[in-house]
Amino acid sequence: MTKILLVDDDEQIRFAMSEILGSHGYHVRVAENGIQAGQILNDENVDVVLLDIFMPECDGFETIGNIRQNHPDLKIIAMSGYGDSEFEPLRYAKTLGADDALAKPFSAEQMVEMLVRFGCSGKP
Fold first, then answer.
1. Do 97 and 67 form a contact (C-beta atoms < 8 A)?
2. HEC profile for the chain?
3. Distances (CA, A) of 46 to 15, 38, 83
4. Around Cβ 61, how many Cβ atoms within 10 Å?
5. What domains are there in the chain, each with its CATH number?
6. Where does the record place the modification 4-aspartylphosphate (predicted)?
7. pLDDT, mean over the chain
8. Is the whole-model pTM more than 0.85?
9. How far, in Å, CA of 10 to CA of 54, rounded?
10. Is the CA virtual torsion 12, 15, 19, 25 positive or negative?
11. What is the spatial distance between Cα 35 and Cα 20, in angstroms, rounded to a whole number?
C-alpha cells in the first residue's frame, strides 16, 4: 500500500484529502507545515509527498529544498490554490524539484490519476 505524506496548513483540506485518499486505499500521514513534514520524513518512509506551497512556518518552497537534500528520490506533488499548474508558484516549485503540480481546487480523480502515473497504487 502506498504511503502518502500530506502537508497543508488548512485543517479542513488535510481532513478532506486524507479521507478521499484513504477511501482509495492509500495510507495517509498528515503534517500542517514543512517542519512537521521533516520530522515525519526523518522517522518514517513514505512514497510520495503532497505539499501545499503557501504555509506558515517553512513554506512549500523551503520544504521541497529540504526534501530534495535529504530524500532525493522521494516523489513530490506541489499544490496551490493560486492559479493553474502553469501558474508561477507551481512552475517555480517544479524548478526546485517538485515532480508535478496540482492547482486547487482539483478533483479526487485528478489527484488519484496523478498518483497512479507515479506508480503509487492504492487498494491492493
1. yes
2. CCEEEEECCCHHHHHHHHHHHHHCCCEEEEECCHHHHHHHHHHCCCCEEEEECCCCCCCHHHHHHHHHHHCCCCEEEEEECCCCCCCHHHHHHHHHCCCEEEECCCCHHHHHHHHHHCCCCCCC
3. 18, 12, 28
4. 21
5. 3-117 (3.40.50.2300)
6. 52
7. 92
8. yes
9. 10
10. positive
11. 24
pLDDT tens readout for residues 2-27: 999 999 999 999 999 999 999 999 99
pLDDT tens figures, 31-88: 999 999 999 999 999 999 999 999 988 899 999 999 999 999 999 999 987 655 456 8
Give dist(CA 110, CA 117) in Å, integer.
Answer: 11
Best CA proximity match to 77, nearest among 39, 116, 40, 42: 116
What's the grid cell of residue 50?
503532497
Q: How many CB atoms lie within 10 A of CB 110?
A: 12
